[in-house]
Amino acid sequence: MNPAAHAELGIWPVRAEAAPLAMHLQDRLGGELYQPWLQADAALSQRQQFALAYRRHRQWIMLGATGIAVRFLDGLPQDKHSDPAVVVVDEAARFAIALLAGHEGGANSLAYRVAQLTGAQAVVTTATEAVKPLVLGIGCRKLASAEQIATAVTQALAQCEGATLAQVREVATIDLKASEPGLLAFCAMHGLPLRVIAREQIAQRAWVGKPSDWVRQNVGVEGVCEPAALIASPRGRLLLGKTALDGVTVAIVDDGEGWRGFIENLLDPA
To answer: Which of these, 239, 258, 266, 261, lies nearest to 250 by C-alpha position?
Structure first.
């Protein structure tokens, strides 16, 4: 264990095989990296080691199975306002699951951040997100400002009757735009998570609107905002196709109707 002062974030790989992924996350996010298999005191199980470290950090990334995480956490959580956030990431970095303290502790935001850094799928299950039906797909030219993006989003929402920013669950974009300062600032300003979709995945998504020659030539895909939003919300329908304003493109996908249809079928399968 790192004897230095305890950081905001703790990273706990359950197995030594997950150490390279853990070190990658520490390199990008900082924090204190644990290597429990090296613990000198063999009398302590790994679960006991984690219990002793649990309150040292405000946030945790655990690399391993959710079942292990649940067993490690048994008896530790006390209150959602004081419990550390816990995000569980499988060793193959397929999923980043906000397991504990999603809102209050920031696990939801951390799960999205881990997903951006690893290509994982962020998994968020808190009720607040469940009732927000809209996903914004956003593409933008390099160094587009947060104000330009906000203006384009406002224009797009205004074209959908009753749609508001408060109904937006997340923003989706292509991986090439994952570090755009204006896009990150816009998301931070409105408390919206950013889901990053790999260019290869967007390239495989069947086109639904008018392709962009410029994007095809410079990015290698036919468009960004529509496929990104539809990939992020596969059950949703395209509420608003690509709109463009001052170098920013916006599409809106709504999955509220799909969810209502799913529930109706459960209640009345006939």
So the answer is: 239
